[in-house]
Amino acid sequence: MSEGFRESAEAPEPVRRRRVLHLGGFEPVAPEVLARRMEAAMERFPPLWNIEAVASPPDLSADGGAMSFEVEAKGPNWQTRTRYTILRWDTVIESYTRGNWLGRTVGGYGALLGFLANGTIGRFFRKARRYGLFSIYPLVSLVLFLLLGWGVAAIFYFLGVPQGLAWLLGFAAFVAMLYWLGHQIYLDFALDHWKFAGDLARRRVAGLEPMLQRMGEEIAAAIRDPEADEVLITGVSLGSVMAVEALSRALAKDPALLAGGRVALLTTGSSFLQVGLHPAAVLTRAAVARVAAEPSLAWLEVQGTTDPVNFPGTSPVTDLGLAATGRPVAWVLRIRDLTGEEGYRRIRRDHMRLHRQYVMPNGLRHHYDYYLIAFGPLSLRDRVDLGTKAAGLFGKDGGFCPVSGASGD
User: Fold this and answer.
1) CA separation for the pair 175, 172 (Å, rounded)
2) How far, in Å, CA of 51 to CA of 396, rounded?
3) Which pLDDT score, from 0 to 100, does residue 4 have?
4) Residue 405 has what pLDDT?
5) Model pLDDT, residue 407
6) Where in the chain is the domain with CATH 3.40.50?
7) Are 313 and 285 in contact (CB under 8 A)?
8) Is the separation of the CB atoms in 23 and 239 below 8 Å?
9) For the whole model, what pTM was predicted?
């Protein structure tokens, strides 16, 4: 576990008022689904810590780009109010996940072959072998379906079916497997995801800049809230990249925006290397460098050892060839330590479910708990400084017991 941010050993001050701005991953999620997820989280995470938490009905902005909840969480000796805002980028995502299936499939494979041809997939293997395997599974699936389709054609031919018809039936079997089996193994999602990543690297995403500017304005407004003890920006997967891109836009307008040390950034299961290792991703790397250079920012990068859709043990800064700044601090976690053994057994074969665990309720008390980070009294800066000791600041009765002299692990 990397070092923390604080230089002193003073006891942490509880956060009484917080602003959170969250960016989800490459997954269009309707407002009603977001509301159900928040409702489920309010039922699942408080009992683990023996606390109370309640969320208001959601407040959706007129343009649908931001959805906010007022959350009040409390224990026997603390109370924290959080305005939790989800910055939605569904309209951009939907331009990739909706539409003609054949066109999306061809476009996805074209983008993935581009990553292969320019050497980016080779760089994935050198940085994180598991992610390298994740990146080529659509190609492996395509070859396998082609071979199976050829096998179907051969069987029909040897059964006496005319050669032309046999090949037609084999091709039909190939298309059916690509469509139906592909959906079962998230192949369609993966191809949409690769098409977006390639377009983002080359800055060919329609509507990207206005969306990032709008997100940057939301972030800046939250940071300027004088009542907030902490402003926390969170992102998961490709949402982490969007969060840094948006924060970079806000800093371009106001370079002194982060002065004061109240702002923290939490990126989880991030895709910085997926995009940033692409040779064309000059602007993404520049955004990462700008944010990483901010001395007042506390930035925690959380990675999972068994999550195939992230880069455990890497830095989204130095592994992109950028100058080291001491940010982000990286935590590499075992997903089973968050979920518990039984919970892990249920999800271990579903790589997308594993990938979502970073922003889902825990099954066990742990120093990393997304909902306690977002709604509890301990700031992210202090949590990073305390490291594995952070969970111990919460008693069995849900009380918050800050101690002096604690240091990061």
Assistant:
1) 5
2) 10
3) 59
4) 37
5) 40
6) 17-88+207-392
7) no
8) yes
9) 0.93
Separation between Cα atoms, residue 284 and residue 272, nearest integer Å: 8
Helical H runs in 69-127?
90-97, 101-117, 120-127
Q: What CATH number should be reported for the domain whose range is 17-88+207-392? A: 3.40.50
d(CA 313, CA 306): 12
Count the residues in the chain. Answer: 409
Tell me: cis bond preceding 255? Omega within 30 of 0 counts: no
Predicted confidence at residue 260, as pLDDT, reads 87
Nearest to 360 by CA among 25, 14, 50: 25
Amino acid letter, residue 322: L
pLDDT at position 371: 98
Distance between CA atoms of residues 266 and 243, nearest Å: 9
| CA pair distance 121, 194, nearest whole angstrom | 12
Residues in CB range of 17: below 8 A, 6 or more apart: 80, 81, 82, 227, 228, 229
**Spatial contact of 70 and 83, defined as CB atoms under 8 Å apart:** yes
Q: Say if residue 8 is exposed, middle or buried (CB neighbours under 10 Å; 0-12, 13-18, 19+).
A: exposed
Exposed, middle or buried, 15 (CB in 10 Å: 0-12/13-18/19+)? buried
Q: Which CA distances in Å does 12 have to 77, 81, 278, 290?
A: 15, 17, 41, 28
Q: What pLDDT, on the 0 to 100 scale, is given for residue 9? A: 55
Give me the DSSP letters along 306-364.
Answer: S-TTS-TT--TTGGGTPPP-S--EEEEE-HHHHH-HHHHHHHTT-HHHHHHGGGS--SS
* Positions in the chain whose pLDDT score sits under 50: 8, 404-409
3-state secondary structure at position 110 = helix
pLDDT of residue 12: 86
